[in-house]
Specification:
By secondary structure, this protein is an all-alpha fold. The chain contains 3 helices and no strands. It has a domain of 44 residues.
Length: 99
Amino acid sequence: MARPRRYGSDAERQAAYRERLRLQSSPAPVEEFPPEEDFSPRVNVPQISEADYVEREVEITRRQIAGGLKDPDGKRLERAKSYATWRYRGFVAGEVEWL
């Protein structure tokens, strides 16, 4: 570890100390940048219809249940259909980023 800097006099040491305090207390200049992203609401145009999307998601869930996914209350397909509908409509409204 390096030795502390030595000053020729107490006045030099005190001046260096005050300079360090001044540099620490002055805030750094802040650059303002224009926003890169447009935050206006957007409407997405899906490549698939709502009915096709919901059916695809329900079919995936059916295959998962057939493969051993638990469905203790027998309502997993209903929940999958409800969630897929909500997600599709959210995507069209611009609330959900992708399907």
